[in-house]
Amino acid sequence: MFHHQDTLQRLNENIPLGEKLSSVHEAIKAQFPFIDRIAVAIYDAKTDTLKTYVHSSGGDSPLQHYQAAMADAPSLQEIVKLRKPRVVNDLNIFANGSQKHSQSIQKQGYASSYTLPMFLNDEFFGFVFFNSMQKEVFDGSTLHYFDIIGHLISLLIINEQSSVRTLLATVKTAHDMTHHRDSETGAHIDRMSRYSRLIALHIADRHNLDDEYIENVFLFSPLHDIGKIAIGDNILQKKGKLTEEEIEIMRTHANKGGEIIDSMLKDHGLDTFENINILRNIAEYHHEAVNGTGYPRGLQGEEIPLEARIVAVADVFDALTSKRPYKEAWSNHDAYAMLQRLAGGQLDKECVDALIANKEEVEKIQREFAEDPLG
Ligand code: C2E
Ligand code: SIN
Ligand code: SIN
Ligand code: FE
Ligand code: FE
To answer: Which end of the chain has less Cβ packing within 10 Å, N or C?
Structure first.
């Protein structure tokens, strides 16, 4: 008898998905040293876009923060349509074509690739990419293993995403039960999450944000106001200005949000879920101000978690440009001017600048997720 060191032991730990993927990559390299990169991209059906999610490539990452319309990627579409993985044993075949993404992989020195589409209940949700610096590494004998490994990776991704989905579904149910009373619509949620993502992407390089973090900010930002569940209709739907006392009560939604998230996590056994701090920080700290005048804690500057500073800008911008029971919708022009006035005081200047630097994208989001005229 002897005790064997499990090469995938780190999968037992509560670590970010990216680190799990790296440990899978290491284990694979012991057997197949020619695998130089593994990457996962997730498909967003609502916008028909594919976005990078996690990768393992020893520092080099040709397609960090990459996002593309599936409509512009015919060869990837073909993979989804056929429901079969694609093997390219010499990426040179793309050298003169129009396949930008494969070209960027090739320029980075990768010579072959194996691309496995991921499905859950018959629904396509993304790709796993295996790349090698060597040509002709994928053949009948190795592909067999990459099929297996690829599916295991897809299960890791599903597990991660379904934890997030369970959580989002629970929160959404709770929200829906109380939400017909709030003016914040589904379109608000769609816009909010995409403004947040836009800001995170724009500041990613300076803050060393990886795609997993950005995806989590995207997923969790719509839950920032979950604490409003605890606020009564008389205040939430009040047509006019709030009194001092009502403002006090309204402000408890930030603390309540943190508490609600905590109790939901416990109920669903998700309290050890690694990325959950991002969610809790968003719910609790999205009304902190960088100059220390915010609530609930009066945190300052970088004491405020970055995800909360990002969401604060997205939230205020969407609140300004939307109709509320207590106010009319502002024009973008006026809203940008207000954000600029708030930058460095209530709002993080870098996050404000990031949103304003992407006006075209902002308008695209507004067109795509316009208010439903029927409410
Ligand atoms: P909300 O409507 O989602 O607004 C989110 C945040 O956007 C506000 O946080 C505030 O920072 C910003 N914001 C919204 N409208 C304006 C505006 O006209 N001017 C400026 N400068 N900023 C604006 P805040 O103030 O902490 O409010 C939190 C929540 O309290 C609001 O969420 C809303 O549900 C409620 N609320 C705030 N003021 C009033 C009010 O006068 N009447 C009513 N009925 N509710 C209010
Ligand atoms: C395409 O499918 O045409 C582009 C995707 C890729 O470069 O692999
Ligand atoms: C990727 O590797 O992230 C996408 C490019 C491809 O292999 O088609
Ligand atoms: Fe709020
Ligand atoms: Fe909001």
So the answer is: N
